[in-house]
Specification:
This protein is mainly alpha-helical. It is built from 22 helices and two strands. Helices cover about 75% and strands about 0% of the residues. It has a two-stranded antiparallel sheet with strand order 1-2.
Length: about 500
């Protein structure tokens, strides 16, 4: 009852006219920020952070969280309409969202993303409200060994993302891991793979640069080359009846969305994990447990629902360690943490006791931001779908401009623009050779986290490699990862055995 009373007091704060207006503005701004390749929740929060001093701290954090929520919703828009993930959290949405748009189902894909995001956000906020303190204690049990095992599990869940050719998938994963080592060594600080001491490589290869190159420029080159006539974007229309049909279709995805929500929240609350591994794991699990796994990557609506529920649930989960422990669960929550310190608020267990109005006002604002985000998102879907009707020549030029601006804006270095061009050509050639691009990008995202946790564990355990299986949590994750890796091999051997027996019969 104390929780309900505190939550009611929080709603009294978040539903004030000022805070409602702040939520609506923040969600709308975040939606467009997330939809722009090259931006994202981190950039949106960073841009707005200096402006928060003109409002009270409780309203300031509500504004930043609304932008965070809106950006997580908006990340699916560019992934579906353009095939360019503006942030790593939206990579998995591209796999099936973009094929749906090319099939004239852009409206359905956007509805699926909005509804799945709403479900993931709602379930995660409920979990946040009910289990904040005990879940924070559970997150403390995760050390470097558990983080490594969790990332390893994420890798095994998307080994099957490359289709039937597992060898090409593994090759692309290894290539992505090699690219993730470019830059300065995490421990010694020595430069690695900087290609003749080129200064631009000291900062490593950004996920954004690689993703924009292979998915943006590479896709444009491939489309132009493979189209015998002038390429045309499939016309897409949407009406109120289509909205209703799409929402009814999502009612059948309750199992996928529930699993993605719980998985996303749990992974999101782990320090240094975040929404990207959660979305990838949710997509991989949805594919491996589906009755029709071969339809994934070709426009399966479950391939949109699973990662969108997970990444939105993870965005809420990442707030948990920030508020209860003072440990940011993602780059965006690190900015939120900095903002709270600037406003004179110290995150940690005492925050719930000393500043209950602030904490529960924030939690209640997550409910209002979630409802506002899904309403605004669905209301603007006709506008997003209308963008697909422009001639391909215009859309092609627009995509290229967005790719260049999106790659240049974060670092403001021409080095990244040249890398985008190079990765675009490489992505085009790999696509023609039928090599899957998703494992390459995902390995670059998760590689640094995997390397850091692996080396930290070996240093702390004085080189004892068995430490990964001796710890209960990490040992369990590794066992599950081995199971996920072996199952496709067993299925392949069974099919081979069945083919060899068939002639004898």
């Amino acid at each position: 009852m104390d929780t309900l009373a505190l939550l009611a007091d929080g709603f009294a704060t978040s539903l004030s006219p000022l805070n409602i207006m702040i939520v609506l503005l923040g969600v709308t701004a975040g939606l467009f920020i997330g939809a722009m390749p090259g931006l994202g929740s981190v950039n949106g929060v960073a841009i707005v952070l200096p402006l928060t001093f003109i409002v009270p701290p409780s309203s300031a954090i509500i504004l930043l969280c609304a932008i965070y929520y809106g950006a997580m919703y908006g990340g699916a828009i560019s992934s579906i309409l353009l095939g360019i993930p503006g942030a790593s959290t939206a990579v998995a949405t591209t796999f099936d969202g973009r094929p749906m748009a090319q099939q004239g189902k852009a409206g359905l894909a956007l509805i699926a993303a909005a509804v799945a995001s709403f479900v993931g956000g709602t379930i995660s906020v409920l979990l946040f409200t009910l289990f904040a303190v005990p879940l924070a204690d559970l997150a403390l049990a995760f050390g470097p060994a558990e983080e490594f095992a969790l990332v390893l599990l994420a890798f095994t869940t998307f080994v099957g993302l490359g289709g039937d050719d597992k060898l090409k998938t593994i090759i692309m994963i290894c290539l992505g891991l090699v690219l993730s080592t470019v830059g300065l060594d995490l421990i010694s600080g020595q430069p690695r793979l900087i290609f003749g001491d080129l200064p631009g490589f000291y900062a490593g290869i950004s996920f954004l640069v690689l993703a924009i190159g292979v998915y943006g420029i590479g896709e444009i080159l491939y489309t132009i080359e493979t189209s015998r006539t002038a390429p045309q974007v499939t016309p897409a229309k949407i009406s109120l009846r289509d909205l209703g049909d799409g929402i009814r279709t999502m009612n059948r995805m309750w199992r996928t969305m529930s699993l993605g929500s719980f998985l996303g929240f749990f992974v999101g609350m782990l320090p240094a994990a975040g929404a990207t591994p959660a979305a990838l794991m949710a997509y991989g699990i949805a594919r491996s447990t589906s009755k029709n796994p071969k339809s994934f990557g070709k426009g399966n609506i479950e391939g949109v629902a699973a990662p969108e529920t997970a990444n939105n649930a993870a965005s809420t989960g990442s707030l948990l360690p920030m508020l209860t422990l003072g440990i940011p669960g993602s780059p965006t929550t690190a900015l939120l943490l900095g903002g709270m310190v600037m406003w004179g608020l110290m995150p940690g267990p005492m925050l719930f006791i000393e500043q209950p109005d602030f904490v529960w006002g924030l939690i209640s604002s997550l409910y209002t931001a979630n409802f506002a985000a899904v309403a605004i998102n669905i209301a603007l879907i006709p506008l997003f779908v209308w963008a697909l009707r422009m001639p391909f020549t215009v859309l092609c030029a627009l995509v290229i401009v967005l790719c260049i601006v999106g790659g240049f804006a974060p670092s403001q270095k021409m080095h990244d623009v040249w890398l985008i061009a190079g990765f675009g050509v490489a992505g085009y050639l790999l696509r023609k050779a039928d090599y899957p691009l998703a494992p390459l990008v995902l390995a670059l995202v998760l590689g640094p986290l995997m390397e850091k946790s692996f080396r930290q564990t070996l240093i702390s355990e004085q080189g004892n490699i068995l430490a990964f299986v001796e710890r209960p949590l990490s040992g369990t994750f590794i066992a599950i990862a081995v199971l996920f890796f072996v199952l496709p091999l067993v299925k392949y051997l069974r099919k081979g055995g069945a083919r060899s027996i068939a002639p004898a019969e």
